[in-house]
User: Fold these one by one.
Assistant:
Number 1:
Amino acid sequence: MNRRAEQQQPKGYEKAETQWHDDYRRDIGDAQPVHNRSGVPIEPLYGPSTDPGAAHLEHLGLPGQLPYTRGIYPTMHRGQTWSQRQLIGHGTPAEYNERVLKMIDAGTTAISLIPCNSVYRGNDCDEIPLPLLGTCGTVVNTAEHMDHALSQVDIAAISTAMNDPSPFTLLSFVLNVADRRAVPWQQISGTSNQSDYLSHFIANHMFFRLSLEGARRVLLDHIAFCRERVPNWNPLSVVGQHMQQAGATPAQAMGFTLCSALQYGRDCLQRGLDPDDFLPRFTFFFDISMSLFEEVAKFRAGRRLWARLTLEQLGATTDRARRFKFHGQTSGADLTRQQPLNNIARVTTQAIAGILGGLQSLHTDAFDEVINVPNEDPARIAVATQNILREEAGLCDVIDPLGGSWYVENLTDEMEKTIVAVIDTVENAGGMYAAAESGLVQRMIGESALAWQDRIDTGDQKIVGVNCYRVPEEKDNHAVPPTVRPAKDKMQAHVDQLRRFKTDRSQAAVQQSLTALARAANSTDDNVFARVVEATAAGVTHGEVIACLRQELGFGQPLIVD
Amino acid sequence: MLLDALMAGDRRALGRAITLAETGGDRAAELGRQIREHTGNARVIGVTGPPGAGKSTLTNRLIGALRAGGQSVAVLAVDPSSPISGGAILGDRLRMTSHTDDDDVFIRSLAARGHLGGLTASTPAVIDILDAGGYQQVILETVGTGQSEVEVGEIADIRVVVCTPGMGDDIQAMKAGLFEIADILVVNKSDQDGVDQTVRHLESMLSLRGPEHTRAVIVPTTATKGDGIDDLLNAIDRCSTILNPNERRRDRTRRLLAGRAAELLREHLLRHDSERLDTACRAYENGERSLEQSARDLLKLEYP
Amino acid sequence: MNTQTPYRVLVTKVGLDGHDRGSRIVAAYLRDAGMEVVYTPPWQSVDQVVRLANDEDVDLVGVSSLSTDHLIVPDLMQALRKAALEHVPVVVGGIVPDTEHALLFDAGVSAIFGPGTARDTIVNTVRQLAAAARDALENPFT
């Protein structure tokens, strides 16, 4: 396998290849050229003549060896398979706790918390219409709420992923809870998901909370704070998922994400942080589309590029600092409302792509996600999909099983070139921060989204059940269970409880903490996140922290370019 | 009835009346005539500049500053229409949302609808409606594409042209258009590098302008942070004191009438008097008359 | 007169969600079909949408919703009526569970476009509804 293929071609191979080519042309004619979603032209056949040769092996590396094309660990899924991290969150903290304890009983070792949309928007629940509360996530506004949500959960042992944009109030609540339970912060482990404010400004405005500049400041404070005081916490997850969901091609999503990571890395360097210390705590989060081979190549190329960029651009010296750890989520944008059970097949395909691409953790979408907030049965099937792939399909038997495929190696190289072109565009525009601020990235994503939609509208891209293989409406959709909404009385009680909490707490302590927070925001040397942690310990709520920082650091508006 | 409602400050009437003005026709003309005596009070501030200069953010800040001074503010944000479909996405509102709850702020987006000047044909009529509706300040925000600036110059009382540091080449390109009409040159994003250089560059360009332009001032701002907005407002106020409201109104009407007459004349020549136009053309092509002379020949003729 | 001027349509998102890929694509569809689209960032309140519909004097309001924000569309319908804008049709696009379609239709919503709705269906429905709304306003002075 290590020998150059051309030299090993049996006699007559060339003739045979010419013969095939003629046969192919005769049968298919000059058919439309095929391009993948990233615009890379795809040949009908790859073979020895497209083999990149022995020099290519240097760009591959073995698993666990630089440049990590074949995987960042020596054992990959043969050793420890990916972690199964399903996003959960619904209703009140008590309802969340009930569900989490069930999951822990069933053997889960890592949990996640999705807060309610009102939390994302930076509001407390007493400011929001009741019907919107708790429909898509848990309503957590105070350290008390977090204490309830994690009741009987051993936070020293379990890894918790928080969907927690700047200014990271959920982690703040967790640290407050740790203090109450006398758990040292060194034992707290997990990840601040949704800490990548650039992706919110650009592509997923759901998580957008503070002005671009303010978010930049608070993220750096957060990273510095965690490195010093919560060493087992990953303070940054760089997100490509939002951009791909918003319409970026896979190559664009990878390119933009690497640019964001570079931006954060440079910001950390400027802050005086050590790349060998902070880079191992950077994690990535990607979308996995239906374009199976393209996704595999995207991840392989991404690993290789990050290994290079960390060295050349950020000055990493340890191998560990150059590893590209990523979580994958199957693409909701590829799912269809039509014939929703078909989505199980789609999610399976996407999950296979992510697994073959060498991911570290995986979320599989429920088939009804395009219709509902996932119901219990569809959510169970999503988990089962992962279990089936891990236990039955033999996907974990071999590390990087597509490595050495003429097609996949070629595609990995081509994707890398396409990704590098994206990176060059952004870097030439002054880096990701400047490119986002000017709207360049948004414009590129918007154009890709429209081009993709155009392919579907014209039928060039077939989507089963949408523009082909349709069934009559009455035969459609029966499999979807009805939507369950949070119990209104429980939510109302939760809101009333927060109102009482706000009246009963020490107003002096609240005022004092908010003053300190505002002062930190206007200083250049105080750590804003440290003041957030103190404030929430003193009873300041999520909404109050954000209102204060919006006042001091600016609210801003995400830049949407038409 | 619409007139009464409009004068009474009815928002619904205002929204409908602008649509009527945009649609045109006899009723629009009639409304325009009826409200005339109630107009002339609003100050029209034109804000223009190249895409990406931060006009919307600046406008948003300007609204805030004017509101803080107790003034009611209307904004007309003009976007181009697609030449192919005739449709438009009116997205200038994107970052103007912090004043949407304020009863004394009225924001309306207009599509240029193929009007070549970059503004819309109905803009003067719409401004009159807002004026009659009691809005004291009207901000007219347009993208400076090299066409609209002349019209903004015709319509606005005070013309604010926005640029950013490092737009050196763009400023050169603006020279003939945007730059010439400016009463106030805003250098936005002044927290970026190169602001001093840009200001110096603008100053040297200003020094080359004729005496009729000498009052133009340069104001650095950082609209995202609100820095320099008070300076901008002061500059606008100083500009306003140069003309009293009646003169200002008369000035605007004169420019409007002259502009409209020129448009009619052009149309007439091209469509209904091609013979005379051709004669003048030939005289120019033969080298008998200069371009200027040929044009003057045409103007000496009488038109109905 | 109705055929002379383009239809004006508001494309917006109410409530808390921020996913706007759908609203951007629909806005482009309608623009390319010759309409003037007033486009807003997400997170508009019901009152803000009413004000926009009034000030921009639109012929139709389109609300995009991905995660349950459609539940406050009935409030929007009521607020539009209160502001004497009941003639302005409202359409909702995005993820609305089948079991909640009735809630929206009962509140007066004219159409719901789920994922995968064909471009032509969206454009034609919007055009018909906007035309009908304009015709219903016999006197532009009301």
Note: Strands of chain C lie at 8-12, 36-39, 60-65, 90-94, 111-113.
Number 2:
Amino acid sequence: MIGYVSADKNELKVRELADYNACYCGLCKSISSRYGQVARLTLSYDCAFIAMLVCGLNGERAAKKQGCVYKPLAKKRIIAEDSPSFQFAADLEIALAYYKLADDWNDEKKLMALFEKAGLYASFKKLNMLSRQLGNIVKDGIYALSKLEKEKCGEIDAVANTFAKILGDAAYFAPLNDEKQKKVLSHVLYSIGRWVYLCDAWDDRKKDEKSGSYNPFVICGKQHDDANASFLLNNALNKAIDAYDLIEIKTHKGVLDNIMYIGCVAKTKEVLGGKHEQSL
Amino acid sequence: MNNPYKTLGVSEDASDSEIRTAYLKLVKKYHPDRYTDPDLKEIANEKLIEINEAYETLSKRSSSANDFRWKGEQQQQGYSGSGNAYSGAFAAEFARARTFISQNNFPAAKAVLDAIGLRNAEWFYLYGIIYLRQGWDNKANEFITTAYQQEPGNPEYAAAYNMIRNSGNPYTRATSSSGGSCSSCDVCSGLVCADCCCECMGGDLLRCC
């Protein structure tokens, strides 16, 4: 996951942008307090979205002025306060990052992956202490995915849904009281996961074809033309939006609506080759 | 019961037409037909009931809004196990597969279908539905399209085909935030049009084209 799920900042209101930034920084702070300074580098907009979604469901909006170690000279900024919602997103972020790197090292022997993995090793130990079950879900999911990739699986649904399932299952560990909303959250994250995987695969298909890395779109090349890719990406996103419409968000609604209805839609268009129309 | 105004997302001094517009919009938003997953369908249904109750309360309150009332119309045609009366080859097997699908027992339904030697539209349709319910939308698309192409006249296949086609269209929503709908593209194409008109009449608006 690398920043596919993000807002279209041009369409945000000023206060919504402040809210978005506060939550992004909040997640970063949460990661650093739980996993140390190195782990902060894994921060992504995707997990910021998950953090905001869970915060929104819990109705959290607390924020205060804080400084940032990475930008010591900058003025103090408004940053969301740490909470179980942020901690959940932080755990998920670390688990995804660590097991992804481990997988990259095992399969493709990328040296960078080994270094980065070594850097995250302390965080990984902590993850096992703090949230072992969530870690195991991610581990099993990434291993299942890596197995399918090794087999050169030609069923794009099987591969994409294996990744989707990681996020869908992880949602059940979110700190929510309402079981029904948890179920809806799981559906949102599942479809978003499918969408992210498909976006990533379609985006990288040319690079992977050259390097010979696994890519479901390359494996069954003839079957997947532009029209089919457009169907798959839009279908996954529409399902995520359908599920999102059932969610009862109390805070951060402006930003979350923007991400789902505008940001991801624009991203899909961009990935599919259309030019991203900037609003004036 | 919750505040009906809040449920419909309108202010307390909203006019009848505003209430009705908001209501219709929400009915569309929470229509259970949008969902293939049974859990989500149920949640959407609950929302719809809440919205209907809210609307009914508000329309009772004002005497003029009696012309329209939601009749609890159940459009849930979804998937019923005993919908089709089969005849012809493998009738019993197809009926059995449908029953398994309606019970969410997909492995059993697949086993029944795999045992059938015939690959007709019904076979592709049922297999497509299984894939759809399991979230294998690429396969579902492939199979349901095949079913529809083999038998375009069948309303059930056509409905499933249209549903899955539409699910792959880019998401569009009228954004209320962007008020003017005149983009830079519209301005340019408008100018070019105006130029063409001028040229027809012997003049010229844009000298370069």
Note: Chain A touches chain B through 36 residues (CB under 8 Å).
